[in-house]
């Protein structure tokens, strides 16, 4: 051996950390597949033709690349549930929150590094209700050579729980949205994809967990169900809980575990019986009067050497309303809090938030009961944006969201007692802004509106510590005294008890936009969601990284390659500035590919250059406005010729820009025809100032929407620009007086309307009822994909029911389709029989 090779090998042995981190590549082909369950078959969306999908294995410290190729007719995005995504929020996955969805025929490589985490998590689709079948386990092994803090198991097995509908799940939720009522519950629960033997239906078998007597196993249990918390137990065996949500816990023994959607639990199981078969059950937990799927999914624990005709030892699942069993399990959870794995609970709180979570009821003339069930946080039902929030945040795109999410409910009431008379919720795309590294306490208070209910609330981008929980109303004086700040359980999904509250703390050390929502999919759909926007820190590695090159296209930056262009020249000449101003005037904020076009008008400047210049200009105007800076270089009005063109036909252009093209989602609701070329009236200007006061500079869309309703956002922007110039030019200006001289100082506070109480239906809400093109006949599509395992090119003939292109919108009704379940089912029935295979545990990373 060459000596330098020997040195390398020696280094590798002495410093395993230097070589152990690996890059792991996965390919997820999202494809349709006909699946058989409960004596009926239907086409489902799958990853690599499997549901549950492939297990993603990695080690702590690894970088994971997953190429997701969308071969189906839905828009798709995948969420790596519980992965912290430090500074890489672009790979988090919730559609319209951190990315535009991957459109049919498109692909995206999710790239993230797993830092400081090891354990079991899950991945799932994060759009529509696709996660009903698009889900799988995410197993993070400790770094090479690092042992578990508990006795090593002989073998590890993934046990992933799910829910199965005979009907198409998109049809189920669309019907519900149309009627305003709750969606149908599932027809069965599943364990590794199998409901288990079902009466009246020839057995398709069930999952079998093979064990050898005397050996120790680790079960990585995941609840991937859409809408139900589940109990899990095994006849005749105790389970030792050692980890939840990829954080180690103090080990404790239990007969039954409780697991909410989005949660994971690792348990050790000792096969301490000689032989035999033992029933494994997954059954619903629901301790309020809400309809659930009562079916118990079953599997079998099978000792090697057991005779085939041996009777299975049975067990009764807990009653579905077994609150004491649920509470006892949750109250037993504690962080391991060892020297190696300390519980870093924030001991002080910078932001103390009190959020009510629950249902509501809003008017709806077309709905069955004249209204629709809603859900909200602090009475805000979150409206999904049409531009991804993270992009809007990173690129400072105004009008997509506001950062005024209320830290407290708008009105105090007896949350778990008599509900208020008005059950209506507000709507909005409102975020809560957090400075980098601030500490946050959130108390989630369930409300009894319509019905009290458990809410498993999931926070993206962070783990948090569950410092307390209780029944009834949270008492801000007494309850915090009982908080556990020593070894509270650390997780990413917290179960808010029915008619009670739960409190958690976290440190906002991950810049980006982070979704928080109920992990009961039905509640999320109804609006029980919000997001935090965490600002960049000032230090190194405290900023959100730029978006990846292949991030699915949005309306604002259809060609996202631009970010990777190099900055060429940071100095700007007077001439360049002038060109820049002209370009801004020509291409307004709604212009697709705006910065490319602006850059094209200034020779020698790249897209990044103009972007930076724009940011600086914006800051300048802000400072000038605030009176912090004596009028700078731009003082002389003749050199500051930022006269924005007044609506030079962009509305028409916008409308002709096809929503089927590169937009993030549905077509931007077309602005009504508004007056063009007509001078602003004094009243309009006053309304503008009110809007400016309410929404701030830049949110022209909301100012147009809620105040100056006679003007488009572009017109408002243009007007604003003139107004600010007038302000900047101040006394030096010798021009005639104008309405621009009316400033906010002239406005009496008491005349400010409160548009939130009385605002028209937000255009964003119209995305609930989009117009779909009717699908012409049964599509017959030919799709190619490579199965990563064998590399064979396959031909997929979807000569079955396919929904119309839903790529455009997440919350669409299938208009023009027959929505009756029977009709759908009939069209699903096919001769295909599919066997879903349990993932074997032998595909560990070997590096
Ligand atoms: Cu909920």
UniProtKB/TrEMBL annotation:
- Give the source's domain of life in one word: Eukaryota
Of the GO CC terms on this record, one is: nucleus
- Provide the top EC class: oxidoreductase
Q: Where in the numbering of this chain does the SANT domain appear?
A: 680-728
What start and end residues bound the annotated signal peptide?
A: 1-21
Cofactor(s) of this protein: Cu cation
What does the entry comment about cofactor binding? Binds 4 Cu cations per monomer.
Q: Give its E.C. classification number.
A: 1.10.3.2
The family database entries (Pfam families) matched by this protein are listed as: Cu-oxidase (PF00394), Cu-oxidase_2 (PF07731), Cu-oxidase_3 (PF07732), Myb_DNA-binding (PF00249)
Q: Which reaction(s) does its UniProt entry say it catalyses?
A: 4 hydroquinone + O2 = 4 benzosemiquinone + 2 H2O
Q: Which UniProt keywords apply?
A: Apoplast, Copper, DNA-binding, Lignin degradation, Metal-binding, Nucleus, Oxidoreductase, Repeat, Secreted, Signal, Transcription, Transcription regulation
**Could you list the residue ranges that cross the membrane?**
none
Per the database record, which ranges form the HTH myb-type domain? 671-728
Q: Which residue ranges are recorded for the region named Disordered?
A: 657-676
From the UniProt record, which GO molecular function terms apply? copper ion binding; DNA binding; hydroquinone:oxygen oxidoreductase activity
Q: Where in the cell is it found?
A: Nucleus; Secreted, Extracellular space, Apoplast
Q: Which family does it belong to?
A: Belongs to the multicopper oxidase family.
Q: What is this protein called?
A: Laccase
Species the sequence originates in: Tetracentron sinense (Spur-leaf)
């Amino acid at each position: 051996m060459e000596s330098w090779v020997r040195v390398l090998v020696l280094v590798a042995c002495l410093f395993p950390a230097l070589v152990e981190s690996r890059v792991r590549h996965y390919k997820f082909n999202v494809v349709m597949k006909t699946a058989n369950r409960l004596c009926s078959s239907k086409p489902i969306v799958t990853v690599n033709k499997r549901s549950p999908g492939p297990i993603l294995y990695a080690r702590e410290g690894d970088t994971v690349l997953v190429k997701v190729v969308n071969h189906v007719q839905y828009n798709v995005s995948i969420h790596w549930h519980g992965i912290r995504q430090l500074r890489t929020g672009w790979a988090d996955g919730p559609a319209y929150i951190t990315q535009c969805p991957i459109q049919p025929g498109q692909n995206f490589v999710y790239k993230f590094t797993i830092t400081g985490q090891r354990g079991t998590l899950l991945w799932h689709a994060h759009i529509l209700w696709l996660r009903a079948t698009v889900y799988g386990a995410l197993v993070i092994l400790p770094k090479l050579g690092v042992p578990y803090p508990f006795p090593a198991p002989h073998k590890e097995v993934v046990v992933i729980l799910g829910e199965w509908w005979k009907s198409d799940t998109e049809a189920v939720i669309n019907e519900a949205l149309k009627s305003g009522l709750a969606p149908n519950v599932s027809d069965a629960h599943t364990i590794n994809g199998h409901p288990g033997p079902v009466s009246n239906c020839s057995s398709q078998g069930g999952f079998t967990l093979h064990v050898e007597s005397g050996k120790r196993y680790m079960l990585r249990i995941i609840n991937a169900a859409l809408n139900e918390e589940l109990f899990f137990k095994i006849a005749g065996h105790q389970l030792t809980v050692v980890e939840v949500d990829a954080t180690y816990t103090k080990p404790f023994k239990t007969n039954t575990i409780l697991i909410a959607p989005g949660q994971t639990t690792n348990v050790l199981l000792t096969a301490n019986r000689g032989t035999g078969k033992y029933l494994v059950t997954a059954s619903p937990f629901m301790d309020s009067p809400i309809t659930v799927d009562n079916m118990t999914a079953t599997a079998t624990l099978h000792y090697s050497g057991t005779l085939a005709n041996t009777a299975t030892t049975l067990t009764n699942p807990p009653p579905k309303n077994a609150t004491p069993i649920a509470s006892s399990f949750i109250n037993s959870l504690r962080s391991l809090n060892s020297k190696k794995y300390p519980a870093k609970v924030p001991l002080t709180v910078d932001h103390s938030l009190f959020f009510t979570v629950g249902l509501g009821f809003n008017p709806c003339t077309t709905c069955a009961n004249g209204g629709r069930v809603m859900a909200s946080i602090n009475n805000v039902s979150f409206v999904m944006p049409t531009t991804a929030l993270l992009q809007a945040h990173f690129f400072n795109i105004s009008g997509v969201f506001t950062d005024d999410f209320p830290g407290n409910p708008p009105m105090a009431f007896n949350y778990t007692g008599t509900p208020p008379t008005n059950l209506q919720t507000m709507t909005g795309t409102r975020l809560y802004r957090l400075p980098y590294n601030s500490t946050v306490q959130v108390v989630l208070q369930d409300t009894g509106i319509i019905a009290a209910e458990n809410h498993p609330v999931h926070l993206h981008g962070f783990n948090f510590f569950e410092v307390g929980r209780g029944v009834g109303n949270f008492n801000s004086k007494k309850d915090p005294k009982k908080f556990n700040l020593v070894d509270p359980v650390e997780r990413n999904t917290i179960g808010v008890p029915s008619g009670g509250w739960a409190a958690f703390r976290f440190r906002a050390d991950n810049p980006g936009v982070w979704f928080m929502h109920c992990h009961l999919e039905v509640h999320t759909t109804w609006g029980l969601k919000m997001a935090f926007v965490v600002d960049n820190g000032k230090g190194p590695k405290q900023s959100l990284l730029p978006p990846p090159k292949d991030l699915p296209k949005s309306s604002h930056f259809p060609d996202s390659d631009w970010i990777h262009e190099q900055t060429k020249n940071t100095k700007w000449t007077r001439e360049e500035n002038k060109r820049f101003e002209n370009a801004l005037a020509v291409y307004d904020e709604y212009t697709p590919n705006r910065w490319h076009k602006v850059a094209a008008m200034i020779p020698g400047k790249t897209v990044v250059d103009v972007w930076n210049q724009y940011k600086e200009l914006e800051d300048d105007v802000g400072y000038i406005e605030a009176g912090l800076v004596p009028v700078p270089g731009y003082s002389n009005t003749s050199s500051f010729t930022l006269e924005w063109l007044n609506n030079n036909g962009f509305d028409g252009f916008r409308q002709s820009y096809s929503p089927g093209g590169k937009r993030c989602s549905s077509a931007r609701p077309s602005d009504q025809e508004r007056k063009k070329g007509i001078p602003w009236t004094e009243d309009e200007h006053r309304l503008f100032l009110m809007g400016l006061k309410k929404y701030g500079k830049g949110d022209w869309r909301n100012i147009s929407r809620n105040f100056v309703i006679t003007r488009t956002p572009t017109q408002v922007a243009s007007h604003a620009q003139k107004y600010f110039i007038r302000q900047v030019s101040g006394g030096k200006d010798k021009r005639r007086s104008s309405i621009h001289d009316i400033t906010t100082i002239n406005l009496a506070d008491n005349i400010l309307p409160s548009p939130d109480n009385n605002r028209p239906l937000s255009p964003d809400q119209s995305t609930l009822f989009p117009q779909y093109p009717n699908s012409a006949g049964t599509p017959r599509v030919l799709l190619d994909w490579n199965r990563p395992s064998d590399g064979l090119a396959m031909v997929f003939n979807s000569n079955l029911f396919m929904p119309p292109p839903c790529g455009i919108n997440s919350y669409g009704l299938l208009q023009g389709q027959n929505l009756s379940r029977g009709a759908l089912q009939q069209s699903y029935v096919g001769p295909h029989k599919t066997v879903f295979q349990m993932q074997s545990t032998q595909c560990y990373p070997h590096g």
